[in-house]
UniProtKB/TrEMBL annotation:
GO terms for biological process: methylation. The keyword Methyltransferase applies. One of its GO terms (molecular function) is methyltransferase activity. It comes from Phragmitibacter flavus. InterPro entries: SAM-dependent_MTases_sf (IPR029063). This is Class I SAM-dependent methyltransferase. It comes from the Bacteria. Keywords: Methyltransferase, Transferase.
Amino acid sequence: MFWRISRSLERYIRNILPQQIAPDRILEFGPGRSTRVFAETFPQALITSLEHQEPYYLKHKLKLQDLPQVTLYHCPLDHNSNSFYSTGLWSHSSYDLILVDGPPKNTKPKVRGGASCIFNNLTPGGLIILDDSNRPDEKSIIQQWIPDFDLTEIFNGSSFTVLQKSPSVSTARTRAQAEAEAEPAYMLGAA
Ligand SMILES: C[S@@+](CC[C@H](N)C(=O)[O-])C[C@H]1O[C@@H](n2cnc3c(N)ncnc32)[C@H](O)[C@@H]1O
């Protein structure tokens, strides 16, 4: 239970996030409850989830097998570099939404800062959720990320923070855009 996303983050994902973004692609560091919550909230999205520990990878592979939109990778940490997840197929895609809920804090100080390796692949206007952001390490990571990657803090929960990449050259689809695109032509007054 302790390892799962909090109830408040789950409520945020289910109730607030759909008003902010309609992601096509979601990346998640640390699978589990959050994977299922994303799949239920954004059934159209493809979800890529990384697990570094093989026993948890096998456990989640089984538990999430009913969700075809989820691609789960066993992705060991790269201890020759910053002890973040080793790069691979996952690091060649672009994403609209990223949840950073791993690696665990006892891996290495400020280990979750390594998530910035994928920020160039975050679509403009895309969102990053950093879980456990009430911890000193995570607070310091946020202070570094905001200026370095032109991010804006759009929500500060009791134990998680939501950051947005500058939407200036926006290609990320907002909820309003997605709904407009889904609108039948006759509704828009076309013949
Ligand atoms: C915070 S957990 C990810 C939780 C996930 N996002 C969820 O909502 O269920 C991050 C990592 O901790 C490790 N982990 C998960 N459960 C664990 C446990 N019971 N004991 C030790 N490590 C665990 C796994 O490697 C996992 O990827």
